[in-house]
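ingest -> fold -> write
write: protein_1
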Amino acid sequence: MLEFIASKVQTNIRELEGALIRATAFANLQGTTVDLPLAQIVLKDLVAEGDEPDISIAMIMAQTASYSEFSIDELCGTNRSRNLVLARQIAMYLCRELTDLSLPKIGLEFGGRDHTTVMHAERKIRKLMAEKHAVYNQVTELTNRIKQQARGA
């Protein structure tokens, strides 16, 4: 299973780590062990399909805003309502997973936030994905939408 993930996810170490976490989170939610068939099913949308298209922060913000029914300005703003904070953290997490941008660059794009805010968002979403099926589904759905948009589908 580890060899399968390593052979299919070759873009960067963060995406490799994200694939492993995604597989283990899904297994925990299902109450099963991580094995090759499970990894193949869970990671089918992540496996390398030739050249991966470029994904931008703007694309991630737009898809997250549309999905969560907030505006991009709200995602970058200072409002701290629970649903908005979760959407903002998911967007930051996706920026880390789907781009090679640095923590400070991502923070800057989200209204001038500190790099530690982005680190916190990434850790929090990883934890929530392992604990809550709804968050896992949200992140998976957004990842698929962003990758489809990037491919021009």
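write: protein_2
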Amino acid sequence: MGVNQRAQIVMTDDEVARFVDQSRTLTMATNGPGGFPHLVAMWYGVIDGKIYFETKMKSQKVKNLLRDPKITCMLEAGVTYDELRGVAIEGTAVIIEDPEHPEYWAAAISVFARYNGPYTDEMRPAVEMMMNKRVIVRVDPERVRSWDHRKLGMGAMAAGGSTAAFIGAEG
């Protein structure tokens, strides 16, 4: 009987939290109107371990979430098999439209600071402009899956194949 490698590569809760905190872009999926997953790359914020993102109220993802609040978010890293790691979060999306809701501005600031640097009160007009006609979406996790192939102890692998020449290349 083979070795269960799945059990070997699961991240601890602390490793998952660190990976989510340190990652830059997530891929999120909602259920599209035709039954196909609607996938988009998103910038996001993190408050108390939960993922938040801002988007236009009229976006396809919000339309999808209003119809069906199920959402999956995935973060990944690694170029070669021995480096692959990631976190997938399945959950329910909560749409926060009210700018007076305490999570609304906290999430907006979290997203802004994550990609622009530390937030100060002087930056409030920039965040207000960013949030024009936008809502906040909070992801309430129901299932978290993780993997970290570095735990397999395989040793470094060289990038190969037809795409290796393009790793790190722009355009």
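write: annotation protein_2
The chain has a mean pLDDT of 93.
The two ends are 46 Å apart (CA to CA).
pipeline exit 0
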